[in-house]
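Changelog entry

Holo records now carry the ligand SMILES as an explicit input line rather than a separate metadata file. Below, a converted record for zinc ion, shown in the new format.
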Amino acid sequence: MTWRGKNRTLQILASAEKGRYGVLAAIVYNVEHITAFVRAAENRRSPLILQLFPSSLEQTPPLIHAAAAAARSASVPVSVHLDHAQDSEQIQYVADNLPFDSIMVDMSHYEKEENLAKTRALREYCHGRGIAVEAETGYIEGGEDGIVGTGDLEGILTTSEDVEQFLDAGVDLLAPSVGNLHGDYGPRGPQLDMNQSVAEREAWVFRTDSCRLHQVGRALNGRARLVLHGTNDFPPELCRACVAVGVTKFNVNKLVLDPWHEHLRRNVNKPLTQLMGEGIEVLTREMEKWMDVVGSSGMADTAGAPATP
Ligand SMILES: [Zn+2]
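Structure line, unchanged by the conversion:
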């Protein structure tokens, strides 16, 4: 079998594309998050992708090893992904030394030609080590806790020409800029680029004919998996609509972690182990709910080979 056939992120997402469901790719900042997310996946018999930001590699170096151990010992398919890796030297170090199944090679803060050239070179480096590669086309506005700030760059929406160029650079997973943004959406809520009227938006009518996400999915035409970033504040209806037009890797951060933060704030005076235990419970329930929403619950047995050899 080639490295692609054995790569856990690719196995999980290939099965999702075939089965037309989404897989949550959830940012973890600590071991409680890892514990809760894997527990939810096992409870729901769902595949899962655990994601770390590069900042975690500096702040809590053991975390990647905890994530990889949890993925390997899970009874459902779980892979480990590095999100928004923006430093070429760090990407090479990670590919050589750390147990990631896939890396987002994020060169989106460079001009397009340089972005493509760097993406291609780093993709070759990662593929040479059995690691799948995600890239961002266009530029997704905003920032999240743990992503290096790139100033006030304005979002650049992805075109079908971008899709061809990134496929030509050999990436496995593509994260387009389709009106989504990192961080919070503000009072109007998520605004994906689809020429909706206000009434349609309020009724969660998803205009597939004019929806940029759908157009990107059609342009990909099965040649790479479609990834959605910037899902804070997404209601379940919008998550399901995105999955329906082909999103398989569904990145989540605050969407899932907010109730856990709220639990910490409300219960800070409780004994630590009780605070942690109840927090894991809150987060497990929350994750299970979103697994149901994106349709991955019950899909573990068809989601490629189990993580354990
Ligand atoms: Zn992102």
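Spot-checked after migration. Residues 84, 182, 229, 251 surround zinc ion (CB under 6 Å). The CA atoms of residues 216 and 252 lie 20 Å apart.
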